[in-house]
Amino acid sequence: MIGDILIGLGLLFVVIGTIGIVRFRDVYSRLQASGVSDNAGLGLILIGLIVRHGLSSDDLRLGLLFFLLLLTNPIITHSIAKSAFVRKYGGRGDGRT
Amino acid sequence: MIAVECILLVSLLAVLYRLFRGPHPWDRLLAYNAASNRMFVLLALIAVIDGRHSYLDATIVYAALSFLGVIILARFMERGGGHR
Q1: pTM
Q2: Interface TM-score (ipTM) > 0.90
Q3: Number of domains, chain A
Q4: Distance CA B19, CA A83 (A)
Q5: Which comes out higher in pLDDT, residue A4 or A58?
Q6: Would you state the pLDDT for residue A94?
Q7: How many Å from the N-terminal Cα to the C-terminal Cα in chain B?
Q8: Is residue A93, in this structure, part of any structural domain at all?
Q9: Is residue A74 within 8 Å of A39, Cβ to Cβ?
Q10: Which residues of B touch A30 (CB under 8 A)?
Q11: What is the pLDDT of residue A42?
């Protein structure tokens, strides 16, 4: 029950983030949509899977996966944003949709 | 739970649209990162729901390797690689 609610909430975040990635105008806006909502949504789906299936041997691996997601996604977002900024990508108005 | 997998698959396809169309290289890199994130959560869903427990190990290896690839590509474009 609680696991299903968590998975549904995570799916809501993932759908919002996908709309943001497809529809926003430049790289930094898309980075913001991707970085915030993917981290929350996919993490909530993994926690929902842990909660939903009770105590089993999969929990440790799913927890490791959640930890890996939570550790690497901000690093990737920061690295892409720094790469676009160092190469003097302008932002608004520079993007051709 | 089939519905959850279908929604994640549709979201994966919508992100792949940005991967193929994105005007700048950073758009493609960001879309690749988002697509691989969705891909490994989809693999974890299949592993837990269908009871294929060996898929989870492959999922962990896939997540670590995709992180390494995206970081290396971002540093490469920062140092002046790519076509711009």
Answers
A1: 0.87
A2: no
A3: 1
A4: 18
A5: A4
A6: 52
A7: 44
A8: no
A9: yes
A10: 18, 27, 30
A11: 92
